[in-house]
Amino acid sequence: MNFDSAMNVIKLSYERFVGTGFYFGLFLLLLVYIIVRSRKEDKIIKTFFVFYPLIIAIIIFNPIFYYVVTNFIDEDVYWRSFWCLPLGITIAYGFTRIMKEIKKETIRKIEFLVIIAIIILSGKLIYTKEFFSKVDNYYKVPEMALDIILEISNDEEEFKKVAGPEEIMVYMRQIDGNVLTEDYRAVGYDYSEDLIISKIEDGRVSVFAEECIRAGCNYLVIENDVVIDAKIEHYGYTKIKTNDKYSLYKMYF
Amino acid sequence: MILVKSLIYFFVIPLILGLGILQFSKKDKDNIFMGVVIGYIYSLAMYELLAIPLIFLRTDFITLTGVWQIVMIISTIFAFVVSLKNCKKIIKDVIKKLKNAPKLLMLIFVILVGMQAFIGFSFMHEDYDDSNFVAKATIALDTNTLYKYDDKGMAYDILPSRHVLSPFPIFTASTAKLLGTHPAIVAHTIFPPVFIIWAYMVYFLIADALFKDDKKMKYVFLIFLSVIYIFGAYSAWSNFVFLLYRSWQGKALVANIFIPVIWLLFLKYLHNDNFYWSILFMTLWAADLTSSMGLFIPSLTVGVLGVLYSLTQKDKTYILKTAVCLFPSLIYGLIYLIIK
Does A89 touch chain B (CB under 8 A)? Predict the structure, then answer.
């Protein structure tokens, strides 16, 4: 049991969970407010908002708990333990309790708007282009990738195996479970240079084409913007479809 | 047609199931939101109960889906018969609550939730974890197998220990099969609005527990919570983002539905009605379906709250009841350690 290693993971998990820290700051402040005002709370509510978060925090910051739990989950996802903390409802409850203390209606309305402003300024809007985009299909797959994937899926070959750039590989078997894919798994967000996908994304046709044939890939997808170092057709593949982003090649074995 | 099927599958059936189950409780027999919430929990718990043995027996996907469908049909018929006599009372209760609710605040809350559900339905969030989760759903349906192939199409040598005890992708596939659509469509388009609304139903019940007869403050709390969710992207690892842009992944349900359900049960229901301990038991079983996180995070929550409330309520039976509720997670945990 390595105490330093455990504390490093717990610290990283905590940092991931609190993010910018403002919501967590509000949570702590309002927790203190609830504790101070808890004489007015009934026992059940007091137990939940006062004792429960404190006990949970003691447990999840404990390296012994970390070691028990990482028998069941990867240490990379230990940050999910922090979801036991009632962050959202403590902030909402604390602010609502503060509002409840004010009896005058006009001041309550102003306070309501001020609290909304505090929450907005402490957080970050989810509904931005960073997190969401519009597509014209219910699969919610990028259009150009879906176009190629459906072309492969609807093709009449009995055996289908695909090699292509990441976007195609990630979505291929989400759409058609009968199509095999070449290995595309990233290790620490970087693809091993040994993987075919790495060579496809670099345009190294002279290297990946024969590897694809050896791997039994009868479908090959290349991104149109990638500068390739040789013609794919020279290796026996035939271009069967192209759209604004991708070209699809097929090998007739 | 899909819309009609989805309404029946995601609202009517859970409502009937839940209200049927609620007839055995002492309180809130006619509460529509509690009915829907319990109905969902029952559906998922039943799926987990059926799926694990059928997966280990190496049966096929159609068999699992068929058996679950039969169980759901029988359960729904039974629940309908049991709850039929209270139909009028349920409708009267809904109308009364709507009449007495503070209209402007209720409208703001409904708009905020509606907006979140609409965006979940209409817009795309790309998450490459889906190459695992959604792919497994599609593979199950396309190949009629249960955890036979990995996400590249290669056959597993042995059952994948980390995923097989929480077969939420297979549940996604069964849902797609019953709705007559594609698993990717269920995951990315249908599940998001359904789970977002389900989560807010739970929070609505929590608001009820916290503010009892103060209707205005109840809606103020809910509005604050909605805004907290909408501005919850301060971290890519907050539970808020998981509900709003990764809601089809089982872990999102753990953080935003099952843990709040556990909080709700301890805040209001467990202290004077033993019936709700059975709901807590079922909740943990349902949580086990959704994610490997569902094995331990809800259990931790239940364990801590069970012990705390046994002390503050001065009732030692809480410890035994808590232990019984933790039983499914304990069994699955042991199975996981054996097959790991």
Answer: yes
Q: Does A43 touch chain B (CB under 8 A)?
A: yes
Q: Which of A86, A122, A126 sits opposite B230 (nearest CB)?
A: A126
Question: Cβ–Cβ contacts within 10 Å for residue A234, how many?
Answer: 10
* pLDDT tens-place string over residues B158-182: 777 767 889 999 999 999 999 999 9
Structure tokens belonging to residue A198: 């790495």
Backbone angles phi, psi at A129, to 5 degrees: -65, -20
Long-range interactions of A64-69: CB distance < 8 A, separation 24+:
A66/A6, A66/A9, A66/A10, A67/A1, A67/A6, A69/B296
* CB-CB under 8 Å, A174 with B152: no
- Report how far residue A70's alpha carbon sits from residue A77's, in angstroms, rounded to the nearest whole number: 9
Tell me whether A187 touches chain B (CB under 8 Å): no
Chain A / chain B CB contacts < 8 angstroms: 234
The predicted-structure confidence for B214-267, as pLDDT tens digits, reads as follows: 999 999 999 999 999 999 999 999 999 999 999 999 999 999 999 999 999 999
Burial of B126 (0-12, 13-18, 19+ CB in 10 A): middle
Tens of pLDDT, residues B105-148 = 999 999 999 999 999 999 999 888 888 889 999 999 999 999 98
Which residue on chain A is closest to B137 by alpha carbon?
A: A174
- The Cα diameter of chain A in Å comes to 81
Q: What is the ipTM of this complex?
A: 0.94
Cβ of B139 and A173 within 8 Å? yes
Closest-CA distance, A100 to chain B, in angstroms, reads 7
Question: Reduced to 3 states, what is the DSSP secondary structure of residue B66?
Answer: helix
Q: Is A47 on the interface with B (CB under 8 A)?
A: yes
